[in-house]
Write a structure and sequence with these properties.
heterodimer; A: 254 residues; alpha/beta; D-Maltodextrin-Binding Protein, domain 2; 5-stranded mixed β-sheet; two-stranded antiparallel sheet; 12 helices; B: 347 residues; 2 domains
């Protein structure tokens, strides 16, 4: 009887621990996205099961404009969001404290007008998509963000292999060509920051750098390359990324 | 009575020691576990920091990026973390000032013996997967050389960045990388484990700088006198390194735990330059290499980011104290004559 009781207790313990770890791994991550073709990677990742592959349970939350999405990010009703880079940078300059962890789709101007007028592309650059997160996260933030970014890079890889995925996720009928790149690319962001004249004399010189969390992207890529060392897409992305770490040493990878 | 006198003497001595210790200025310095950082180790173990009135705590880091993040956050007063890493931070707005040196060259490309021949020619890097440590100076040296050889490192090859040279070495051994860039002593360890050093960074850019003394500009301004004492201690360590090879190896062995014979080869084998001189001209040239190689984008001039006054002050102070010591005069002459031009070898 005693033995049976102990065994039962043990089984209950095992089951309970399983439930607990399942809950921890499956806590809901709310990812906002703009109804914009440049945010297609977020939706492709869901469609292809990339979030689940990374152990994330993601709920996509659609926004019709970046400002309302950024407001939700600030209020904490979403954990991250894929919104327009121009609006994101303005919010950062306005003191919202957001950080950029990955890139997305950047519209590319085509046609005779674009060739004659640089401002056409400049406007489109600002409507490119970046992935933003709030100022601070809780424990385990880095791991979750690395998984999220890995899922988006996987989605990018899928879109390269199956271009029809992007067409299926495009929004509107008369869209410019969208160039996708999940790399946050600090120097591209800095150019836009300067173009928008967002830098204030009261900001420290590394103000923008402190809001671009490139290391997440590099860690995600490292992880993907470790699992698929011969993958040409991961190799291509890895070859051009240069990351300045900004997390360590207290968050150093184990 | 005898007992009382002994007690009184002990009390007096301990009070004197405490008073002396209290006078020491605290300074926290970051280092990497490489034989190239020997000036720190010698200055600490041989008491040169203490002689200069400093209580220096050495903090170990795995790579330059982590160390500089700690400097930026004010957790370290100074650190010695490459040339490319502080410049990459400066390019992104970090308010760092370089005020001294530590080591130059000291990086190498390692590969399995059967792959070594391929990488002797930079043109054969096309299509290869190369490992490097994030922001490592050797990485930038090779990227600049590839750029010079007409190879676009963003397209023509894959450079995978790692956290540590040990991880790069393991990946080369496993065959997941065709070759890897590591720093001293990892290329010596790699050779012992059956790998080959294909090229040293000094073969690519002779005399390039590596680890510089870096601090926040505000720290340099506020603690100029302390930093001058810090460099004075490093100059004394340099003198020791030149005159006592075995003593130097013994000290370094405490921080870099590898065979002493390997350390001797590492330190005095001709692939490591040791010098506390900031080597301003070389740093400025390195900045240009980084820009040309598309590693950083910046329109900023870094002329004001390299402070040579502190080193000049340290040298002058030693010359005054020891006017007969030829080394200080030689170093001053070298410092005043400036560095030679850095050239990328086109091969």
């Amino acid at each position: 009887m005693n033995r049976l009781f102990v065994l039962t207790l043990f089984m209950v313990g095992v089951l309970l621990s399983g439930v607990k770890s399942g809950e921890a791994g499956g806590s809901l991550f709310r990812l906002g996205y703009l109804e914009h073709t440049g945010a297609a990677l977020c939706r492709i990742a869901q469609l292809k099961g990339e979030y689940a592959q990374e152990g994330l349970k993601v709920e996509l939350v659609r926004f019709s404009d970046s400002r309302s999405g950024l407001a939700a990010l600030e209020q904490g009703t979403i954990h991250a969001g894929a919104f327009e880079v121009g609006e994101g940078l303005k919010a950062i300059a306005g003191g919202k404290g957001f950080r950029i962890i990955a890139g997305g789709g950047i519209p590319t101007a085509t046609g005779p007008l674009a060739e004659l007028d640089d401002r056409v592309q400049q406007r489109l650059d600002l409507s490119g998509i970046v992935i933003l997160i709030p100022a601070t996260g809780g424990a385990g933030e880095k791991e979750t963000l690395t998984r999220l970014t890995a899922a988006l890079v996987r989605a990018y890889r899928s879109s390269r292999a199956e271009p029809e995925l992007l067409r299926s996720k495009s929004v509107g009928t008369d869209q410019p060509i969208i160039h996708f790149d999940p790399y946050p690319d600090y120097y591209r962001l800095e150019r836009l920051w300067k173009r928008l004249d967002l830098h204030s004399s009261t900001f420290p010189p590394d103000f923008l750098a402190n809001h671009v969390y490139e290391e997440i992207y590099c860690d995600a890529l490292d992880r993907l390359l470790d699992s698929a060392p011969d993958d040409n897409v991961y190799k291509e992305l890895s070859g051009k990324a240069v990351c300045v770490p900004d997390c360590c040493p207290k968050n150093k990878k184990q | 009575m005898k007992r009382f006198c002994a007690l009184l003497l002990m009390l007096t001595l301990s009070t004197a020691v405490t008073a002396h210790a209290a006078e020491l200025k605290k300074l926290k310095a970051g280092y990497l576990p490489t034989s190239g950082h020997l000036l720190y180790f010698v200055a600490k173990e041989k008491g040169f920091f203490q002689q200069e009135g400093l209580d220096v705590e050495l903090a170990r880091f795995t790579n330059s990026g982590e160390g500089l993040t700690a400097v930026k956050a004010g957790k370290l007063d100074v650190g010695s973390f490459g040339t490319s890493a502080p410049l990459a931070f400066i390019a992104k707005g970090a308010d760092f000032t370089i005020f001294g040196g530590q080591m130059g060259e000291g990086h190498g490309l390692i590969a399995k013996p059967e792959k070594a021949e391929r990488f002797k020619d930079l043109k054969n890097f096309r299509g290869a997967t190369i490992g490097a440590v994030r922001l490592a100076t050797g990485d930038v040296v090779f990227r600049a050389a590839l750029h010079e050889a007409g190879i676009d490192w963003k397209k023509d090859l894959t450079i995978k960045e790692f956290d540590s040279p040990a991880a790069v070495m393991e990946a080369v051994k496993k065959g997941t990388l065709d070759a890897g860039l590591v720093w001293i002593p990892y290329f010596t360890l790699a050779e012992k484990q059956g790998l080959v050093v294909v090229k040293y960074s000094g073969d690519v850019i002779k005399g390039h700088t590596c680890c510089r003394q870096v601090a926040l500009t505000s720290t340099v301004k506020e603690r100029q006198a302390d930093l001058e004492h810090f460099l004075t201690a490093l100059l004394k360590a340099y003198q020791y390194y030149l005159t006592d090879k075995n003593g130097t190896v013994d000290v370094v062995a405490k921080y870099v735990q590898i065979d002493k014979g390997d350390l001797l080869k590492d330190i005095y084998g001709g692939h490591l330059l040791v010098s506390p001189d900031p080597h301003k001209k070389s740093v400025l040239q390195f900045w240009d290499f980084m820009k040309k190689a598309d590693y950083i984008t910046s329109t900023e001039s870094i002329d004001g980011r390299v402070n040579t006054k502190i080193y000049a002050g340290a040298l002058a102070s030693l010359e005054k104290r020891e006017p007969k010591e030829k080394l200080w005069r030689t170093l001053e002459k070298e410092f005043k004559s400036g560095d030679g031009e850095l050239h990328i070898k086109g091969h």
